[in-house]
Amino acid sequence: MNIKIKSKKITESKNFIKGYFLLTDKSKTKFEINKKTQEWNQWGNSTENLFLSVSRIENIIEQLN
Prior knowledge:
Elements: E1 5-12, E2 16-23, E3 28-34, E4 40-43, H1 47-52, H2 54-64
């Protein structure tokens, strides 16, 4: 099965960007990015599915600069 990101939801506050990616297998990968340090975390999915959204998170961080 070729799992892909189907949609995303992002909420932005002064210090953080939070949200989730909805995958085609109906699972969710939640994430949080610290705007000041640009550190980020993902959780709520299998390790394999977490890898799918790393490049998307890196793109969000690039837009902060």
